């Protein structure tokens, strides 16, 4: 902990001089926060390494978060480029190599202030899709940032439906070149990061045309800007797409190509190539690339999405014990807002959610590793299940984390609207995850398609993938729990989630079949079921998250303090889900009115239990003040003082008196004689 | 409609050259959009007047929305001051007076670009709280902007609990002055608009101290900046609170007073005054001020909150018929995304919500008028009910509208993240309404307190206020509806909402009583019930909205096209609420599993029915392109072209090559010899 440095705006070390209202929350803690931090890091050696990396970054003034909340989009961009270039030098100096844990911790710590994100995707796609020759040519240059690449796939008019992309690559046998075009306004590339003002090269996706026949989407390397003066090449129009919600450090761009020629060798040719005579040749299987896409999704959840919720919880919970409002009992001093049941009901489910999703990601990474080994052996059986699981978990995680961040933000009242609280930028950072790396509705329906298929297999008593094995074992009786304590039994609530998910899948499968029997076409019937399909896929994913959280409990010493506190969170996550979706659980009278009332009481009682552990539970996330960058949520709890100190530095307090002289003074002088 | 002008970025009139995909949606419309516009405006003469005002503003280049999305906070502020000063001149020239409908339409149209919002509150509070003498002194100056005022109530450490405010005003008999102080960091005034960089005066709220005794909160006029050079007076520290989520045009500020003296006459003294000898004297009743607070809330809903959702619906629905994605049937062209059930399920409930809340506000304004007359006659019986209603409706409206705007934004995929879509700024504008003018949780619990009291009265068979009269008439049987069409009967679903609300109130009232019987103190028992109290208050408010929407249907010719289309929206609003909160409606087996399944089917069928009217239903909101200021949602539907044209103007495309020369060129030159 010694490495922790004070935020640049706060001259004191945050571990001293703590606000007494926060300090008292850290006395007589019922479990070891250090132990919990180690669990979250995946072992104490990881915690140690992470802290070492963070200490190096925090000690280097070049990485200071500076006045991030005060910067314009242009300033954020310049800062990001400067820090990204400097980080490469720093990593080389420290001996931290690419794809190392050190790099992962650097990116996670500095993400808001870095560029070159799509450059990394550019590198990874050449490694995945290029021949050895192509890799040897491009990767050494890209690794050293001698060229900066981007990944130009999404178009102005097309995102999720890749087959609909309009860009074209036509082979010219005479010159042995591909002619690249974005033939319409809607086909210009739109959104790729690093494209707007930085990249020199792009992996450009286009429909391949050979002798008038279309062979579908293929990747081409194209140089888009001069290395000498950064000007766009002949036939190339490009630029930045302008202001966005969040991601101001990144230069998302547009790209128009008009008859731009690249040599035949620039088509990435690991899985298919065009021969000199214009013949098309496919080779090998590109299925392993699906795995890449899946692991990118899971890493995004653990590296970006869940930490946003963890940070929001840290800020909101710490602030809620230093903010006081009204009396809980007449005559007493004003109460900490965290002592109000309504505040607990806002924040604690978010805390439990952050833990729940952290553990389910560990589970996904476990399957991913098994799947990776199998795929390399040429076996692809696990792929559809892994894809369906990862898609569903991506959706529920990004949805819940985004909503959760916003709940935390709003729970901080007016101050949650100040950028200086750190909360608005967390929302801006987390919410796009519902759209990028697979739009959530599109992904949910992919998970649903897998579930419907498996339901059909279950009906025919075929063996089922393990994550849906419950399709053949759901007990269609009613929940047997009676007393409040029964609802704290993981078997009871896991069964309830199982029942809910299965019922959702079964009903929509039946509806689908019935619509087809009534004469509807497959596609029309599917469209008429998509709302319920999406809902069933969410229920299934929710069940998986609950189940994996209960499995996590088994990994810790029975009756230990850590197990107890994790079980409280697991119970809360599960019961909050029932409380919030009671209708689903009451279907077929699985839960009676009385049982739902008891779930509610058990859930509300749990809030009071978690109250005493709330601050240690967010301390265990172990975010330094520099990483949180929040006037409300710093370790020392001096929220008001810091808000005031930071506000004074705002550029809005440094404007000259032009506005006064031009617009106001001529008015005010009319009052001079009268006051 | 002739008055409509093209957005400054689009040279063509938007009524010509419409994207065919949007144009076809406006053929063979099943009802008169003009008629519906008139209903929303409250009569055709209002529509006419509104359009005349908007035409004047749109024709004046000084009011152009310019490059709003490209401006920094400093630029937004300067624009707001410039336009606000100019608007006063323009209104004088046009003969539009204060508090006229013309002024209302101006503010609604230009709100994003105006300042002086709290100046208006300053004026209104002097009118409400000042003596005739005080009004005669200050109002003429304030009305002409010769002084600019702010309303300094909220403190850094206190918002919702007004009694907890720490600022003090101590009377000094010797000098006949009040000594004003903000005695701690947490007591500095924080958030007031126009305070940060503009206001010369403030209505400052402080605890009044006379001879050591505290008399509670009172308002004082204090000059805070020089009229000559704008410098803060002796003992005054002030400034801007810095960057926020939204409201960049407004200079929210902070204010520290240290022994600042104001003359005795500066205490606003309509309801209480301090005599020269330091005696305190109360006079009259200030209950009418509650009414002011209530009407401010309702006006805020109709003037700001609901229009945000209406605009978001307009943008998202128009965009969803020009965006195409994947095939609905194999071999067909890509389908409009609005033809997907999942997209309809996102957008149409928002559309119905916008209409529902518009009508419930009309109802509230109706009671307000009755209440205003009664209050002036010294009768205050309606006040508690009106307060409870307005608080609950404020909460449900701001919650639903904020969430709805975000649903619309996300339904536009990646482009919904571009500021140029207009959608992010709508969210930034609407979401703070959940916190200002009464924090939502605090307000809900005020409504709940009224409901609990009325429940007690119902138990004792006392007469009940009309909005809770159903407490004595709820039928505790089960819902009798059988077939799908039964659920389109307003009596059926209104009864269901009534039952849900009553059950929520009854259960929590019983729990409260039980806790007290078990020996818990009143306050502790209340706190342990607050989650359920808030939920019950939401259910009651939801019932009121549904009920008032059904009453609206009766105002239109039976069987008319307008009645049909409004009934579809009313049904959708009601059934969506049951679908989304099924658990509440299944309590006590009011709805069976089979009935809920039928509600779901009826609800999904309705989506397809509303599909054909979707574009006319948003056209009826009658927002001009300049008012929407959206690249995605303009009347002509040329979304992609406009997004591209606007992006090119972004300052991110006008930065010099400093970043390239400083950071990138030194790297890139290493690749020159290799490529």
Note the topology.
2 copies of one chain form a homodimer.
Chain A: H1 20-23, H2 33-41, H3 44-59, H4 73-94, H5 101-110, H6 117-129, H7 132-143, E1 149-152, E2 168-172, E3 177-181, E4 189-190, E5 201-210, E6 213-223, E7 236-240, E8 253-257, E9 260-263, E10 272-274, E11 280-282, H8 288-322, E12 324-325, E13 335-336, H9 341-376, H10 383-410, H11 423-430, H12 440-459, H13 490-517, H14 522-553, H15 561-580, H16 582-586, H17 593-611, H18 614-619, H19 625-628, H20 639-648, H21 658-672
Parallel strand pairs in A: 1-5, 2-5
Antiparallel strand pairs in A: 2-3, 3-9, 4-8, 5-6, 7-8, 10-11, 12-13
Written description of the protein model:
The structure is a homodimer of 675-residue chains. The first copy, chain A, is globular and about 90 Å long. In chain A, a hairpin with a 2-residue loop joins strand 5 and strand 6. The first copy, chain A, folds into three domains: 89 residues, Acyl-CoA dehydrogenase/oxidase, N-terminal domain (Butyryl-Coa Dehydrogenase, subunit A, domain 1, Orthogonal Bundle); 135 residues, Butyryl-CoA Dehydrogenase, subunit A, domain 2, CATH 2.40.110; 319 residues, Butyryl-CoA Dehydrogenase, subunit A, domain 3, CATH 1.20.140.10. Chain A has 675 residues and is an alpha+beta fold. Chain A contains 21 helices and 13 strands. In chain A, helix 3 crosses helix 5 and helix 13 runs antiparallel to helix 14.
